[in-house]
Amino acid sequence: MAVQTVAGNATTASPDLGPAAALSCRECGERFELGPLFACASCFGPLEVAYDLPTGSPEELRKRIEAGPDNIWRYAPLLPVPADVAEKPNINPGFTKLVKADNLARELGVTGGLYVKDDSGNPTHSFKDRVVAIAVEAARAFGFTTLSCSSTGNLAGAVGAAAARAGLRSCVFIPHDLEQGKVVMAAVYGGELVGIEGNYDDVNRFCSELIGDPLGEGWGFVNVNLRPYYGEGSKTLAYEICEQLGWRLPDQIVIPIASGSQLTKIDKGLQELIKLGLVEDKPYKIFGAQAEGCSPVSAAFKAGHDVVRPQKPNTIAKSLAIGNPADGPYVLDIARRTGGAVEDVTDEQVVDAIKLLARTEGIFGETAGGVTLGVTKKLIEAGVIDRTLTTVVVNTGDGLKTLDAVSATSQATATIKPSLDAFRAAGLGTA
Ligand SMILES: *Cc1c(COP(=O)(O)O)cnc(C)c1O
Fold it and tell me: Closest by alpha carbon to 251, among 242, 240, 261?
C-alpha cells in the first residue's frame, strides 16, 4: 500500500501543506484550520501542527525517506509542506553530519558512544535554516509577501537568505548590540535589517505590536504568526540523528535552550518516529543547556518549579539570550518526563568548551555550541549523564559568527622573519 502523504480534504479550501491536517492547542487540545495563527482562541495556549501521518508500513516509509534528497525534504511526509517541496526555490538545509566524536569521548571518559550533530553545516551556518525553510512554505501557502522575525542573530540571517532565494521581501529585527558576524550575515542578503535598542525580549514585544498594526499586514513573522510551522523544522534534527544512527534512538541528547522551541520539537520528532514504528520504542533522556547569564529554565528546573521566572540576559552566548522563553514550561516537562535535566555553565566554561571541541574534533562551534558541550561535560562529571550510554550533543551554530568569544586566546603562536634561523630561535615546530 502506498504511503499516504496528503490530507486531501477537498471540502475545505485549506492550503496545501502536505500531511498537516490542522492546528491544535497544546493546552486544551482545541483544533483550528491551518492558517497564520499561533494562540488558541479559547485559552491562549500555543498552537502546534497536527498531522494525518503516513499509514503504510514502517519499511515502506523508511525506504521512501532513504531515497529522498540529502536535505530535510527527505522527511516531507512528516512535515507541513507540499509534496513537491523539493522542486521549489528554498534553502534546502539539513542532513548535516553526525560526527562520531571518539577523541572527545576519550577526553570525557564516555564509553557508550559520543556524537556531535554538527548543524554549523547548514546554508547560513546555524540550525535556524531548518525552521525557516518550513516557515517559507507556510508563508507561500498563506500568500505572505514579506518575511520577518525577531531574532537573537542567527534567525535574521536564515530569514534573509531564505527570502532572497524564495523571491520574498524581508525585514528582520535584532537587538542592536549583536556580534559583527551575525549582523553582517543578516544584512548581506539584501533585505532590511533593523537594530532595536533593547534586548531580545524587547525586540519580540515590538514585533508583536507590529503584527497588529496595518504596517505589518501581509507579513509572515516566522517565529510569531508562523511559529507553529517554524517549530516543526526542528523535528528534522530528531529524524536525522536517528536515521544516521541506523534508525536507532540515542539514549541521551543534549540541546541548547533559547526559547526552548528546538528542544520541545526534537522530543516531538522522536515521539513520532516511535509512533510510526521507524525506531524501537525505548526510553531516552533529554538534557537542556543554558548559559548562567541567561538561565531561567535551568533555575526553574533546579528549584523544582513549573513556571519560569524571566531574567535579564547577560552572557556571551547571545544566540541563547532569551530571558523570557516561550517554551520554558514545556522544556521543564520534557526534561522531567524523560529523566533528563536542565543545567547551565559560566561564560568561561563556554569558551573552554568551544576550544575543547575544536581541539579534539576539528569542529569550531559558536557560543551556543560551547554552552551545550560545557553543560554536557558538567553533567558527565556530576554523574547525571551516563558515560556508558549513547550520547548526542547538538552543535547548533558556527564559531566564525562569534569570533570575539575566543579571539583573545586564539592568536598566532608567534610572528617571525621568513627564515629557518628565526623559526629555530623561537623554539617552534615542537608542539
Ligand atoms: C536560536 C538558537 C538556538 C535555540 O533556539 P530555540 O529553539 O529558541 O530554543 C540554539 N542555538 C543557536 C545557535 C541558535 O541560533
Answer: 242
User: Structure pTM?
Assistant: 0.95
In single-letter form, the type of residue at position 334 comes to I
The two counts, helices (H) then strands (E), for the chain are 15, 13
Asked if residues 50 and 21 have their Cβ atoms less than 8 Å apart, the reply is yes
DSSP 175: E
Single-letter amino acid, residue 178: L
Calpha distance 298→116 (Å, rounded): 22
Residue 2 reports pLDDT greater than 80: no
Distance 319 CA to ligand 1 centre (A): 6
The residue contributing the CA closest to ligand 1 atom 3 is: 258
Given the CA of residue 153, which atom of ligand 1 is nearest to it?
Answer: 15
Average pLDDT over residues 112-141: 98
pLDDT, position 55: 87
**Region 142-158 average pLDDT:** 96
Residue 196, beta-bridge partner list: 175
Q: Which domains does the chain have, with CATH numbers?
A: 98-125+233-407 (3.40.50.1100), 129-230 (3.40.50.1100)
Q: What is the pLDDT of residue 13?
A: 56
Write the residue with the smallest CA distance to atom 11 of ligand 1: 396
Residue among 237, 262, 372, 394 to mutate when testing ligand 1 (max atoms within 8 A of CB) = 262
Hey, what's the torsion of the CAs at 198, 203, 208, 211, to 10 degrees?
120
Q: Do 301 and 332 meet the contact criterion of CB atoms below 8 Å apart? A: yes
Segment among 51-60, 139-148, 315-324 with least mean pLDDT = 51-60
Give the Å distance between the CA of 155 and the centre of ligand 1.
8
Which protein residues touch ligand 1 with a CB less than 6 Å away? 126-128, 152, 154, 256-262, 319-320, 366, 368, 396-397
